[in-house]
Specification:
Beta-Lactamase; Alpha-Beta Plaits; 5-stranded mixed β-sheet; 11 helices; alpha+beta; 12 strands
């Protein structure tokens, strides 16, 4: 037990401090100092807990972890901290935010430091406990709002079945990519991709198989592209692709690879092999074309690919 003479007059101030919790533990985790803040929030008086083991009053404390923290401070003679973000609290005290129903404990930041006697020998560990409940709750609310906003953004720009970007994103992204490519004098190709005979797949195998086919198509196509290409589900069994910073030849080469990656192997659904191919129509941005025109040209090229036998790539030819 440490005699009270070993502490300075500063301990009197700490004792009456009601804005910060302050406790001192000896090597055996017995409490040798317990200030007014701790009395107010734990409803345990100093005379009840002094010279008693902390964990006998707070059995939910991770004793092994705290003992390691104390020994580390005693042996290394250094300071340490814990944050509510990694460990919400050291001691489970009631929440100070009574207006918030789902917060039933006080979030805490803690500082640990060696306590020395008059001979400068470390004899105990002091722990300062800061109530950061208001900060923690505000941050969690902000994180929840941010997460909800991101979820809404995800819903508004992505197709729920395939996980690809949707038609709205395609049209918005095309405006941005076309503007950048024109400014930097880059080429830009777009492609409209359609699953051949998709209606017969639905009619023969059912809509669940049709969904499996679309999801597998999306994965195969996406895996073939660069990270800055934008593959979107345009609607039904049709996909749209933006290829910024490409030449006409590179655009056709990419689309041939896409066609081959689908044609190379059947899609497996419910143990059945479903042969699938795609037809692709491509168009290329030029300064005298509107974005509506290049989309229409890619659509016309797609129609030509279908007309010429499917499972092929056709490029719009200027008249």
């Amino acid at each position: 037990m440490v005699n009270e003479e070993q502490f300075t007059e500063f301990s009197k101030l700490l004792q009456e401090l009601s804005s910060i919790g302050f406790i001192i533990l000896d090597r055996r985790m017995n409490v040798i100092f317990w200030n007014r803040f701790m009395e107010l929030h734990s409803h345990i008086k100093s005379e009840e807990i002094l010279s008693r083991k902390l964990t006998s009053f707070f059995p939910d404390v991770n004793e092994a972890w705290l003992n390691k923290k104390i020994r580390s401070t005693l042996v290394l003679n250094n300071q340490a901290v814990t944050s509510w973000e990694h460990r919400p609290y050291l001691l489970k005290l009631p929440s100070t935010q009574y207006s918030i129903d789902d917060v039933d404990f006080m979030y805490q930041n803690c500082s640990y430091f060696p306590v020395k006697d008059s001979d400068n020998s470390t004899i105990a560990v002091g722990i300062a406990i800061y109530d950061v409940t208001e900060i923690a709750v505000s941050q969690k609310l902000l994180e929840n709002v941010t997460e909800q906003a991101l979820d809404l953004q995800e819903i508004s720009t992505h197709d729920h079945l395939t996980g690809l970007f949707n038609r709205k994103f395609f049209l918005d992204q095309l405006v941005q990519d076309a503007s950048r490519c024109r400014r930097l004098n880059w080429g830009l190709g777009i492609a409209m991709i359609d699953a051949d005979h998709f209606k017969s797949i639905n009619d023969t195998y059912g809509h669940q198989t049709g969904d499996d086919v679309l999801k597998e198509l999306a994965e195969r196509l996406q895996a073939t592209l660069r990270t800055f290409d934008s593959l979107c589900r345009y609607g039904g069994e049709e996909f749209a692709l933006i290829l910024p910073n490409t030449t006409e030849q590179q655009t056709r080469q990419v689309c041939e690879r896409l066609r081959e990656c689908v044609d190379k192997a059947p899609i497996i659904s419910a143990g059945r092999e479903i042969p699938v191919t795609v037809s692709i129509g491509i168009s290329f941005l030029s300064r005298n074309k509107s974005l509506e025109e290049i989309i229409s040209e890619a659509d016309a090229a797609l129609y030509l690919a279908k007309h010429n036998g499917r499972n092929r790539v056709e490029q719009h030819q200027a008249e």
